[in-house]
């Protein structure tokens, strides 16, 4: 996970904390992200785009007191609000409990094993009393391969030899940090359900449904009147990317729409275009390389520049409203042909006011309109 994407997620989770962020916080969030990819390669309910936000939230929650961070917020996590708490609880159980169980697992040093192995043998200088004490252990202790089992067997022998009087002295064995506490091991195994035995790779979704495309477009505030036209254009062109990746087409179309809608912001703000490209790379779920995505964005923008929805965006957000004479001409054509004449013209109809003869009702309408204009000018 890149540091820039982690910083963007931390900015959404703790917006009141100024940059730069503590290195400890960033490294822990990166660790949680890598661990989540191993435990949960694919998140349901199209929550893959919020994986980095979940890890940033848990990291900020853990270091809130030690680093004096503000309380993390869930308002800008890009997933349905009713599912945020469920995903955060799952991440806590899967990641944080796994981290505790891994840090609490016992490790046996070579020196301890060497001490246990050599203590069972007698030396020429050892006293007879020590030989009589160690000989029962030597004959009764079975051969055990595991170091933990060896330690446990030695502990059982000491308890048997000590008798019931030493029970208060050995009460520290039941401590939570004890390596023989089987409850901690069972809790660690239950905290990570369905752990795969074989290594898994991250699933890359190459095909996009209409719902995925709309969800992807909503991350960049595309107007609701433009999104259905973009979906229609996407469906008509997606067959060209059957052997490639349909996310290339989706990223190119979103890029073409965004740079036209927000062209003033991109021109006036330094670094705004680079930030938009980072967000575009973060929200795509096709496993694209960043340089490859930007290359295809330029190719697709040049290929779809004549689409009707591109012309509509340019007319409304770049060139402004249509001139007055074009509006007047359109209203005159609507009066003669009725509403919806543009659809017939798209289907190839040649019936246009420039080549049509006016009927008697149209001539009467034009005569009345002309007389009204002349009377207004004379007055």
From TrEMBL:
Belongs to the ORC6 family. One of its GO terms (cellular component) is nuclear origin of replication recognition complex. Residues 99-148 are annotated as: Disordered. It is found in: Nucleus. The keyword Endoplasmic reticulum does not apply. Keywords: DNA replication, DNA-binding, Nucleus. GO terms for molecular function: DNA binding. Its main location: nucleus. Residues 100-110, 117-135 have a biased composition (Low complexity). Pfam families: ORC6 (PF05460). This is DEHA2F20790p. Residues 10-98 form the ORC6 first cyclin-like domain. GO terms for biological process: DNA replication. InterPro entries: ORC6_cyclin_first (IPR008721), ORC6_fun (IPR016811).
């Amino acid at each position: 996970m890149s540091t820039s994407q982690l910083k963007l997620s931390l900015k959404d989770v703790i917006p009141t904390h100024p940059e730069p962020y503590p290195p400890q916080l960033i490294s822990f969030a990166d660790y949680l992200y890598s661990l989540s990819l191993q435990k949960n390669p694919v998140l349901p309910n199209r929550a893959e785009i919020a994986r980095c936000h979940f890890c940033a939230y848990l990291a900020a929650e853990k270091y809130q007191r030690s680093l004096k961070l503000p309380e993390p917020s869930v308002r800008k996590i890009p997933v349905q609000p009713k599912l945020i708490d469920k995903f955060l609880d799952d991440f806590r159980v899967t990641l944080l409990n796994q981290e505790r169980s891994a840090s609490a697992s016992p490790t046996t040093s070579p020196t301890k094993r060497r001490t246990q192995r050599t203590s069972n043998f007698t030396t020429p200088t050892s006293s007879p009393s020590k030989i009589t004490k160690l000989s029962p252990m030597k004959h009764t202790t079975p051969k055990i391969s595991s170091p933990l089992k060896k330690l446990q067997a030695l502990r059982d022998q000491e308890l048997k030899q000590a008798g019931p009087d030493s029970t208060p002295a050995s009460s520290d064995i039941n401590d939570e940090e004890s390596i023989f506490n089987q409850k901690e091991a069972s809790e660690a195994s239950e905290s990570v359900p369905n752990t795969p035995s074989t290594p898994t790779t991250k699933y890359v979704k190459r095909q996009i449904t209409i719902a995925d495309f709309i969800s992807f477009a909503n991350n960049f505030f595309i107007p609701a009147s433009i999104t259905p036209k973009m979906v229609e254009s996407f469906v008509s062109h997606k067959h060209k990317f059957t052997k490639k990746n349909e996310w290339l087409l989706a990223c190119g179309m979103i890029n073409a729409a965004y740079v036209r809608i927000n062209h003033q912001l991109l021109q006036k703000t330094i670094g705004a275009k680079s930030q938009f490209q980072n967000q575009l790379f973060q929200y795509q779920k096709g496993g694209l390389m960043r340089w490859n995505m930007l290359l295809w964005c330029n190719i697709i923008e040049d290929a779809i520049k004549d689409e009707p929805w591109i012309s509509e965006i340019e007319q409304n957000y770049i060139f402004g409203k249509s001139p007055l004479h074009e509006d007047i001409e359109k209203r005159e054509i609507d009066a003669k042909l009725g509403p919806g004449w543009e659809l017939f013209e798209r289907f190839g109809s040649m019936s246009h006011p420039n080549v049509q003869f006016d009927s008697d009702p149209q001539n009467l309408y034009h005569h009345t309109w002309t007389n009204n204009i002349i009377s207004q000018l004379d007055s």
